[in-house]
Amino acid sequence: MDKFAVVLAAGQGTRMKSDLYKVLHPVCGKAMVQHVIDAVSAIDITQVVTVVGHGADSVKSVLGTKSNFVFQDAQLGTAHAVMKAEPLLSGKPGTTVVLCGDTPLIKVSTLENLLAVHMSNNASATVLTAIAPDPTGYGRIIRDTDGHVTKIVEHKDCDEGQLRVREFNTGIFCFDNQLLFETLKKVGNQNTQNEFYLTDVIEILQQENKTVTAFCTPDFDETLGVNDRVQLAQAERIMQCRINEQHMRNGVTITDPAATYIHANVVIGRDSLIRPGSVITGTTAIGENCIIGPNSEIHNCQIGNSVTIRQSTTFDSTIAHEAQVGPFAHIRPTSELGRGVKIGNFVEVKKATIDTNSKVSHLSYIGDAKIGRDVNIGCGTITVNYDGKSKFQTTIEDGSFVGCNANLIAPVVIGKNAIIAAGSTITSDVPADSLSIARARQVDKLGYAKKRK
Ligand code: UD1
Ligand code: CA
What we know:
By secondary structure, the chain is an alpha/beta fold. The protein is built from ten helices and 41 strands. Calcium ion is lined by residues 100, 102, 225, 227.
């Protein structure tokens, strides 16, 4: 039996008060609708159809080939939205799972359980429900005295008795596909919001004596629908808990999970230690036995094994095995730190390659540079890469020793095993194996200080 999915993602998300379309708001670095598509795709779906409207092009470009798309020009309600999938799905035998793009926490296992209930009851429709401590805003599940679901009433259409019902519609359903599209045609818009409600399909099917069932998930959290920024923060916290738990179960130590922020696509190897205040985002991959934090921000970085990054920020860079960064270092995009490289406090590295075992231990700026292996850069050294108009390259070859407080005025090449005297301002290339001193000579005026007193 084929399985289809329809994901509703056409709304503007007025309550978000945002220029970004609601379903594109990220939860742990991944768009809400992407979470939904990833979850539903894991249950072996033949065809996923996403209904787009507001921000259609942005939603399409985020989801790419993971979904087919249909366009809902005016947002006349959730039934109207599902109806847009008719040209792609109607008439096909099978089961259709309908989900909303704003429920990012839904778990694969729950979708599997929902499907199982739907199949075992041979149902026409099965709604996923949950019990909310405070169901304000959600559609309520109305059952008859035998406990059968008779209808779903939107919050705004509820009478006083219905408002007291705490079982609510999560917005996730399974339907017999053919019956769904036949029934959608019968849905009207006589309600407070004058919208075509998908939820009305339940009442219609029930009145036609079709089998309508419900599966109530015990986990209220995963059904959270995000309509505003408060709910967005709730979703972020719940998702973060899950992600951290997953890493811990995979052998990563997280000292304080409540103070550790790791995005959905991050990979971390076993026996790595993530200390509090760390924010690890994007496509970062961290190897084994690393120590990250406290208070490090790492974005889109590829990090080897046994790397230490303390109180530092690193972006779009590669850091090889056994490198040490920080405390208080800033590694800017497209930098490459080789094996065993040491970057110490108050060092900024930008668009630079630093090869095996080289050290930049304190207070330096290394930008637009290529540094060989076993190079030592003394405290306070600057690659002078910018003349106010253009950027220039500094090359420092293997084994060189740059003394403290040197200015290397680019473009410039420091040859192999060269030595630069402390305080030098180097303006032309330094030959290999030589010593360059480029500073004023010291003058001592004997007795001068004493006379002044
Ligand atoms: C909906 C349900 C409600 C349920 C809640 C769960 C209906 C009528 N109500 O309410 O019973 O408790 O979800 O979170 O179904 N959308 C479209 N096109 C439209 C309208 C909506 O694509 O014309 C999309 C939205 O982008 C959103 C989803 O459908 O992703 C749900 O719409 P929303 O307005 O958030 O519905 P709720 O009021 O939350
Ligand atoms: Ca919603």
